[in-house]
Automatic annotation (TrEMBL):
<dbReference type="Pfam" id="PF00664">
    <property type="entry name" value="ABC_membrane"/>
</dbReference>
<dbReference type="InterPro" id="IPR036640">
    <property type="entry name" value="ABC1_TM_sf"/>
</dbReference>
<feature type="domain" description="ABC transporter">
    <location>
        <begin position="596"/>
        <end position="830"/>
    </location>
</feature>
<dbReference type="InterPro" id="IPR011527">
    <property type="entry name" value="ABC1_TM_dom"/>
</dbReference>
<dbReference type="InterPro" id="IPR039421">
    <property type="entry name" value="Type_1_exporter"/>
</dbReference>
<keyword id="KW-0813">Transport</keyword>
<feature type="transmembrane region" description="Helical">
    <location>
        <begin position="417"/>
        <end position="435"/>
    </location>
</feature>
<protein>
    <recommendedName>
        <fullName>Heavy metal tolerance protein</fullName>
    </recommendedName>
</protein>
<feature type="transmembrane region" description="Helical">
    <location>
        <begin position="112"/>
        <end position="132"/>
    </location>
</feature>
<feature type="transmembrane region" description="Helical">
    <location>
        <begin position="152"/>
        <end position="171"/>
    </location>
</feature>
<dbReference type="InterPro" id="IPR027417">
    <property type="entry name" value="P-loop_NTPase"/>
</dbReference>
<feature type="transmembrane region" description="Helical">
    <location>
        <begin position="86"/>
        <end position="105"/>
    </location>
</feature>
<feature type="compositionally biased region" description="Basic and acidic residues">
    <location>
        <begin position="231"/>
        <end position="240"/>
    </location>
</feature>
<dbReference type="GO" id="GO:0016887">
    <property type="term" value="F:ATP hydrolysis activity"/>
</dbReference>
<dbReference type="GO" id="GO:0140359">
    <property type="term" value="F:ABC-type transporter activity"/>
</dbReference>
<dbReference type="GO" id="GO:0016020">
    <property type="term" value="C:membrane"/>
</dbReference>
<feature type="domain" description="ABC transmembrane type-1">
    <location>
        <begin position="278"/>
        <end position="562"/>
    </location>
</feature>
Amino acid sequence: MAAHGVTIALRVLHYVAPISVVIYFVLAKTVAACFLHQPSKRAGLGSRRYAAIGLLAGVLVTIVAQGTVYVLEATRDPQWSSSQDAAVYILANLLAYASLTVGIAENRKPIWHQYIGSWTVGLVMEVVLTALQPLAEPTRNRYAILCEVFHVLRTLLLLILTVAGCACALYDRQKLAHPKETEPLLPNGTNGHATKPAGYGAVTANGNGTVAHEADGDEEHDVDSDSEEPDRDKELKATQKKRLEESGSWLNYFKDFKIFIPMLWPYRNRFVQSCLGVVALVTLAQRFLNVLVPRQIGIITDQLTAGGGNGVVPWRALGFWMLFNTLSSSAGLSLIKSLAEIPVQQFSYKSIGSSAFRHIMALSMDFHNEKNSGELIRAVEQGQHLQGLLEFFLFEVGPMFTDLIIGFVYVYTLFDVYMTLILMGVGLAYIYIGAKTTTWSVKARRRFNNAWRNEAKVQNEAIANWATVSHFNRGSYEVQRYSKSIDDFNAAEWKYYIAYYIGGSAQSVVMLLGRLAAFSMAVYRVAQGRAPVGNFVTLTLYWRSIESPLMQVSWSVRRLSQMLTDSERLLQLMLTKPTVVSAPDAPEIMIKEGEVEFDHVDFAYDPRRPTLKDVSFTAKPGQTVALVGETGGGKSTIIKVLYRYYDIAGGSIRIDGQDIRNVNLDSLRDSFGMVPQDPALFNISLIENIRYARLDATDEEIVEACRAAAIHDKIESFPDKYKSTVGERGVKLSGGELQRVSIARAILRQPKIVLLDEATSMIDAETEALIQKAFKRLTAGRTTFIIAHRLSTIQHADQILVINDGQIIEHGTHEELIKRGGKYVALWSKQLSKDVEEVGQALEGVGPEQAVLDVGAGSSEGTAVEGGGSDER
Ligand SMILES: Nc1ncnc2c1ncn2[C@@H]1O[C@H](COP(=O)(O)OP(=O)(O)OP(=O)(O)O)[C@@H](O)[C@H]1O
């Protein structure tokens, strides 16, 4: 009775032993991957790895030897099938220890505790099995004795592995705790490694899915060391690694991706939610159909075989098969699923696209000055690959694992546990090869993406800067540059597809071998009479349903990593916070008078170089303040900080006593009418471009504004009048026309404060005189800031500020400044002499009296010649 109990315990242990080793290893690996466990600094010692591989090879030999003994015993005793548990123990143990051996052989820096723990679990199991074996079989033949010898040998090998592993771990801990006693006094620099800057390449992903310090010199697993990548991508990856290191675990790392959840999950959209429900139901039904269709064929086969041609048709079984088959056809449930998926995909496409676009538009000027717009667009496009993420997890990864589990159980019920083991073996080999090829293809994919982006960038830059290219006659140079970028792209694409296809073929071979083994085993079993023919037919049809989730596992890993790589750029973009934002619950600005006060304002684009230094002045309500000074002095910057393109570093800017940082940003910007230095238009009609300033303006108001800006007659002279399109950024208009359109926009906007940044620099003096009236109307009663190099434009200003090197060096009215005889006068006379020179050149050949006459007109009326001819770009 006791022997019977021991036999049962032994049988159970035969199943439990290999499973517990595998479970421990998988759990330890998962925990290590999630919490970024790092291999110890001494983990890469080659001698330890080789010793462990040698001992594990010994363990494998004892398992194979024991298996051989069982086969010999089976040939001697046909009733041997009763010891199926022993066969399972051998096969499963072989799979388990082979996986551990491959794990160490593949990884130059293993995380040892994962392995030591698995060996310990294996050791405990082997000790119990070795002790129970003699109790279960008191009378033993030579086969049993041999098996016991192998058991003992295996136990000894595992004991050595466990004890040596623990001893090494303890030794390392002591050694690392007292580095001074053992480490060389000189740092790493002595072995030729350069010190890397903090935060850059500090950690790299290694084969464990964990991070390792690059300084350890483990280049084999440094999948990210990619010298061909542009600096920006290296920066991106450095940020990603830094983020991973700071977050401490992959779980935390993925927390950042949660910003995409509201874009993927339709919280408030009932229709999309119900479509998701339909997709979920169909997915569930498909799991059942995967089994029911081949099973029904098996049932029909068995009924036909049993009938032996007696004319009885299995109508009922056939009817069910027809029903199941129709449901699983592409005109059945798949059609419903495909239709229901469309709104779900469109929802996420729209929400990712519009959120990313909204975010980009809300980012501050410093960001937009740095970024290449082509790259931004590509980041959004690639990020939209995330669109399928929700479905991917819910309706691909989930069903895939369900199918696998159903598959393991169903092939067991069709035949026996060996079939399940074949399936597991194929699965492990397939996933292993899949993981290997994914590593190559992800690396190749990154290069492919970079080359693709670079190609778009080169093309985009050349087209956008066509005028510059043409000024320097660099057309063929740009074509050459572009064709080189296509060559790079083709080379990267070629490498990517090689890695992709070779990996795919290797996996197909594994799949084929698995199919051959399973079908041979099924034929053998049917021939032995241990299973009906119908089961073989069912298996051949069902095998395809098991292969596809297996293929999906590695494909899903590949797809997930591809989705994450592609969306990393969008994530970085979404994580970029605008530097200028409204304070929470900031009130709208209330402008009554329009008094603008700069109070000890300091500002710098780059903290190493101050741009504005202690700037203080007050623009009284309705006053016109002119900013003059040498180029690069900081005039435009004063306007930019007032518009809050940038936040100042010190002091404050107040409008009617309200600090502009404490009011709502939109309301602040709504109060300004800006005419910038280089106005740009959309490539739409003129009338739409002007209406952009005030979307509800009527056509009459637009025409009125254009009249005031002295551009109406010009527009009327165009063949399509107000409907003329203006080209990209307004290139079809001359510089002067562009500025006048821009002034018309400002007039239409009816702002509270007017900002004119070189608004008339490209307009000739004659036209400027025409629009002076318009300016008067625009600026009447409004506080106005004017930047102008043409001093005549600003001589009537209420206040003139002379800006030099970020400071106000003089201020006052034109007359006061002229009287003072300082920098303003220097600027004024410099301009006069420049004008005389230019006029002299322009009037070469004209009589001297005539030239003097013209200069006189220019100086009194504001340099009549300055704008001459500059109205054309
Ligand atoms: N986005 C920026 N990033 C870094 N530095 C900048 C930026 N914009 C301007 N600067 C620098 O700030 C300084 C002041 O520039 P700003 O455009 O305000 O001068 P300005 O007086 O308006 O010149 P100009 O009369 O030529 O328009 C210059 O040295 C310029 O190089």
